[in-house]
Write a structure and sequence with these properties.
Helix content is 81%, strand content 0%. By secondary structure, it is mostly helical. It has one domain (3-114).
Length: 117
């Protein structure tokens, strides 16, 4: 298994554990985004830890994948708390594009479901 695939699988497992933990407390519709955001936050912290220790790192695609999977708030908080991926312009650009497109899509969906569109 390649490094990218193993880190991606690790991200899926961490996310599933977080979602499963929240599912015991709240409905699944709240557990999904909460779990993804907690997993994103944890993964940014883990990647920063690995960066400091000069170990293998999570590929940027995995970190951006959290933002794509509705984990933008957890990703952003992880970036700020761990001061991670805050100076790399190409990463920040991709992160904010994903976040803005996702926010627009969610807003459009809500407006459509409410029947005001």
């Amino acid at each position: 298994m390649t490094h990218m695939r193993s880190v991606g699988l690790g991200a899926v497992i961490v996310t599933a554990i977080c979602v499963g933990g929240f599912a015991f407390v709240v409905e699944i519709w709240w557990a999904l985004p909460a779990g993804v955001n907690v997993a994103a936050f944890l993964f940014y912290g883990f990647d920063k830890y690995r960066a400091i220790r000069k170990g293998w790192r999570a590929p940027e695609a995995v970190l951006l994948g959290f933002a794509l999977a509705c984990g933008a708030p957890g990703s952003f908080i992880g970036q700020c708390v761990f001061n991670h991926k805050t100076s790399k312009t190409s990463f920040k650009r991709a992160f904010w594009i994903l976040t803005i497109v996702q926010a627009a899509a969610i807003t459009a969906l809500i407006i459509h479901l409410r029947g005001n569109w």
